[in-house]
Amino acid sequence: MSAPDRLWINVTLFDGLNTAAEPMVVAVKNGLIERVCPMSELSASEREAGEVFDAECRLLTPGLVDCHTHLVFGGSRAGEFEARLEGQSYEAIARAGGGILSTVRATRVASEDELFASALPRLEALMSEGVTTVEIKSGYGLTVEDELKMLRVARRLGCERPVRVVTTLLGAHALPPEYKDDADGYIELVCHRMIPAAAAEGLADAVDVFCEGIGFSVAQCQRVYAAAKAHGLAIKGHTEQLSNLGGSAAAAHAGALSVDHIEYLDEAGVKALAEAGTVATLLPGAFYMLRETKVPPIELLRRYGVPMALATDANPGTSPIFSLRLMLNMACTLFRLTPLEALSGVTAHGARALGLHQQTGRIAPGLRADLCLWNTSNPAELAYSVGLPTLARRVFAGNSH
Ligand code: NIG
Ligand code: FE
């Protein structure tokens, strides 16, 4: 076997699911992880080969995966934040034409270049904390052209920075004013125009919906899922965020990669996720910003063995928070995840929520060498402290940045 390009030695390893009990070696070649073994198995000749980097027992984790964001948008909703502090609810603001629709107005008038320029610092903030894979949704255009515009910006972000961008068409996010009182007509547009156009241009990897009283009904979401699947696209859902409509179970039955938010998910819904192998994505930033009090059913998800992913939900309304590290802390303090559960949520399970678990999110032979080296040897530190630049090195596909 020829020499690896880089040998990481004396690594404290969190592989995405578990922490190794002894110092480890990770060999990287051609952008892939070639071998993972204890230091005790490394021969003297192997140690001489390739470029050796001594981690001095610092923690090496998979590159972080933020599996749910709305990073591309126009405008700001600081005014809505103030209104909510004065007592108005998220739902009342949405029903009055604000909320998502106010971002839709700002996004429609923005050019691709403007959207790109405003999204870039948001992406760079995530990357500076170790994110190597990020999902970006559309959903603030709500016309065929404006949704495709958002997806093009998302793709361009992935081309211009060393990060993997997964794109999701969220046409069924809110009812645009042109379709007021005709939700079924709008779903028709999503299914027969938006999804085919996004698929034909290769702009979407997945399709998402907002299944909620202020979003779309379970039956309407099921139509969107069928259209997405007919075009070979994966499916996901914003479900059980504000109420329990049974949207998570419907998504799971349709083969969804993940259901996201799920504060109001019940045991039957958890069971449906377990049976379908659907990931439960927790979004504590939105829970926090909306001052929600209903905690997702963490104990049930554990009991049924449902993988829990964790993401920022970075968006201008419910989670204007561009820090996945902060989500690690919030998942522990607000939802009582253990630090290791939280860390699996932004690595192995985050990758699974995107259908990328064969490519990234774990440190295992054959996967892409997306890695983070931290200035600590204790994984719990990553969830414990907030605001310290603990990242020593971020590696994307074998290259340090
Ligand atoms: O994930 N729930 C729906 N969608 C977003 C919020 C979007 C917005 O308010 O702009 C979410 O919370
Ligand atoms: Fe969201």
TrEMBL record:
Record-linked CDD domains: Imidazolone-5PH
Binding site for 4-imidazolone-5-propanoate: R77, Y140, H173, Q241, T318
First-listed, main subcellular location of the protein, grouped into a coarse class: cytoplasm
Pathway linked to the protein: Amino-acid degradation; L-histidine degradation into L-glutamate; N-formimidoyl-L-glutamate from L-histidine: step 3/3
Sites where the protein binds Fe(3+): H68, H70, H238, D313
Binding site for N-formimidoyl-L-glutamate: Y140, N315, G317
InterPro entries for the chain: Amidohydro-rel, HutI, Metal-dep_hydrolase_composite, Metal_Hydrolase
Binding site for Zn(2+): H68, H70, H238, D313
Free-text cofactor note: Binds 1 zinc or iron ion per subunit.
Gene Ontology molecular functions: imidazolonepropionase activity
SUPFAM superfamilies to which the protein is assigned, alphabetical: Composite domain of metallo-dependent hydrolases, Metallo-dependent hydrolases
Localization in the cell: Cytoplasm
Keywords, comma-separated and alphabetical: Cytoplasm, Histidine metabolism, Hydrolase, Iron, Metal-binding, Zinc
Record EC number: 3.5.2.7
Amidohydrolase-related domain segment(s): 60-379
Catalyzed reactions: 4-imidazolone-5-propanoate + H2O = N-formimidoyl-L-glutamate
Essential cofactor(s): Zn(2+); Fe(3+)
Keyword Glycoprotein: no
Enzyme class name: hydrolase
Keyword Metal-binding: yes
Functional summary from the UniProt entry: Catalyzes the hydrolytic cleavage of the carbon-nitrogen bond in imidazolone-5-propanoate to yield N-formimidoyl-L-glutamate. It is the third step in the universal histidine degradation pathway.
Protein family membership: Belongs to the metallo-dependent hydrolases superfamily. HutI family.
Protein name: Imidazolonepropionase
Species assigned in the record: Oceanimonas smirnovii
